[in-house]
Amino acid sequence: MASTDDVNFELPKLRTSFSLENDTRFLGSDDNIAEFFDVKFCPYQPLDHEPVFAAISKKHVIICRLTKDPNESNPCQVINVIRDDDDEAASCCCTWTMDTLHGKPYICIGGVDAKVKIYDVIDGQLVECFVGHGGAFHETGRYLLSGGHDQIINLWTIPDLPNESIATPLQVHYPHFSTSAVHSGIVDCVSFYGDLILSRACHDDVIVLWKIEGFSSDDPLPAQSTAPTPQNVLPTNYEDPGRLTRSAFVPLTSPQCPVQYTRLLAFHTPNCGPQFFMRFKLHHVPNQNPVLAFCNAAGNIFFWDLKRLTTHRDVMSALANSTDKNKPLQLPSWQKPVIPRAKADTSSKPRATDSDQDPSTPVYINQIDSYEFSPETLESWATKYSMEDAHEPLRHHKIESSSANFVGRQASWSPGGEWCVVVGSSNTALLLQRWASK
């Protein structure tokens, strides 16, 4: 059986890290814990340009450029450092925007003061300041996800926006979907994966992939009047977990649609504990494998390649349906058989059975040429790639480790998928790279 290498399945390797000085001395409070809380790559650059990212600590935004030149010992170049002069502000979120008139890149930051401040990335000047906050939008721009301390995840429908300036902001009073049944703790990260949803909460030690039954972004936008309110949802059984969910897409459950949401997969994120504000990032662009990245509270960066899940399913289907067991089968380079500790039967024949087993039942150890794999191999594959059990968390496909004292707060991918930057405690940023030899 031959195995092939596919560059699309390559996952990042930790290349280097850097730290910003402890900037808590600029805070007006007694906060003395230095941390990076968020990192975002600039989405407005051509893919063949060196990617630029912004990492945000409580008082600073640091703008950096990355180079994949293998001769560079440090691939990260600091372009600018912007400090928030407001003594009462401590930032924790950032995102990029652009002046559409002049093409200038701006960085937006938000934090405990409930303000959104917009800075010019080039000269570091404050451009504008708004009161409010934002979240993870659907790619259509018409739906918004939110999560919070009440362990509730909401799906909001964005109304048609006016073409002219208005004096009173538009208000959306109720979401079209709301649930507190997916997680049992504070929800600190939610994201769309197409029309599916990824979310995590502290204490759970998992990232969950799930879907809202009846929801499709291809359908017309639901009217605001159809958004369910707590007053018009009257559960008949208060022990029913379904009472924790309200949906305009499946208003009432029925035998044809017995649930309002479906849990699809879970990804195992150990050693997170009670830590709050730890956020994953999914790299999902056309013609590349979707890859999920997350860093726990022990400095471990986990990666899951979602394309591996469907590829594994196809491989197992091909094995089950093959009529010619002697025909060579190519396995992906990442799907390797596990050799049991017991000595393998090199003759590829059934090994002797134990006295309490049916002697007519063959037990194979590692008969690769005839598509028979050891139990260890099948179990190893199932723990990483099987989509059969939505409640059995999948183990990571790759792990990279840094300091055991590092707590990851946010991961971000460069637009081309080559770089993954993770920021967290001690104002430290980890730079991970793949395809370095390309």
Automatic annotation (TrEMBL):
InterPro entries: PcG_WD-repeat, WD40/YVTN_repeat-like_dom_sf, WD40_repeat_dom_sf, WD40_rpt. Keywords: Repeat, Transcription, Transcription regulation, WD repeat. SMART domains: WD40. Gene3D superfamilies: YVTN repeat-like/Quinoprotein amine dehydrogenase (2.130.10.10). This is Polycomb protein EED. PROSITE patterns: WD_REPEATS_2. Belongs to the WD repeat ESC family. Residues 337-363 are annotated as: Disordered. WD repeats lie at residues 136-158. Residues 342-354 have a biased composition (Basic and acidic residues). It comes from the Eukaryota.
